[in-house]
Description:
Layout: H1 2-56, H2 62-104, H3 106-122, H4 126-148, H5 150-163, H6 165-184, H7 186-195, H8 199-240, H9 246-258, H10 265-278, H11 281-310
Amino acid sequence: MRKNTDVKRCASLAIVAASALAVWLLGKLALRWFLPFVAAFIIARAIEPAVRLLTDRLKIKRAAASGICAALVFAAILSLTALAVGRAVYELSALAKNIPRFLAGVPGLIEEIETRTRGIVGAAPPGTRDYISYALEEASERGARAIGALPGSIISGLSGILSGGPGFLLFVLTGAVGTFFISSGYAELSSFVSRQIPERRAAQLRELKAELRRTLSAWLRAQLILSGITFSELAVLFCALRIDFALLLALAVAAIDMLPAFGAGMALVPWGLIELLRGDAPRGIALLASFGVIAAARNVLEPKLVGRRLGLPPLAGRAPL
Length: 321
């Protein structure tokens, strides 16, 4: 009896391992080919309420309603992509033209930072002085190499954006056609998939879907509120410090602050330290202090926002530091 149980366990583990390997190979080798159809299914599911509205209220045929909604969605995708790519190409081209002017002041800035850094290193204990000097020299060399490679990186980025156009258009065209056909037969497809799932499993999946939607919606709303607060604080600070492109920079830092593994400190702390090394102590201190204020506000507000929307105590809604 014991032997049969062990054999069944080994067989189950082998099946699970083989299934995991098959899924990994499918994702590794075939995902790029199936991705347009996966995107088409997701978009078809998203536009289903609009398609039903057209068919029920306006009495439009299902195929025509699906075609109208799919065309509007992909027209919006293409328009936004064209605007984003055009703006990116314009900004990168302008940056490439102005790089010589920007780089003209870099040697003086590096020399100024090195002079101030040597004064700080000179006050360090003898045992650590050589190590700090070596680390600073290494960082300076890497920074110089990165700055020297910047024009080539920008040109390479522009080439990559332009060369990826045909592939993106093919992806969008395939997704649009797939969305139309999936949306046209969405009821039959959904009914077929539902018949393949046992009722008990289907009920569990519906509960899981509802819970995930509620959780993700609560988290996203809380993050948007916190990012709005961060953007407002930084916009006021940057305008007060007379920083160029204050609103754009505040928006960029607020977007970084939304990312779980990053945070506003990824931008504000290095920026503040560089300003201190340059000798602009008020601006450097203001940037570092703003990071402290943003971190404190997030640690205080995030537990309340997330916990309240999920129905949890504030401590349970607190994100780990």
